[in-house]
Amino acid sequence: MSIPESLKQSTQAVALKYRPEQQQTAPKLVAKGEEELAQAIIELALAHEVPIYENASLTQWLGQLDVGEDIPEALYQVIAEILAVVYQLQGKQPTC
Q: What CA–CA distance (Å, rounded) separates 49 from 19?
């Protein structure tokens, strides 16, 4: 699968996982990388039809977390807004 031109310029990537139905209390950082690893993360997301949200500032901030770490409360609102759009695109309803 080819990477869209806009994503080829990405030098950082992060991946979040959130499964509220599994009693996960907050989204968790599950992968992060720079340069070639960032491109591999993007390719993997595209191959598995995982939605990609481009925001260099947010990616840089999340990249400071350790893999396996929950996102900080300060980012709950912005991540919730992104997830709401993702759910809407997938025809799903967020669960509380």
A: 17
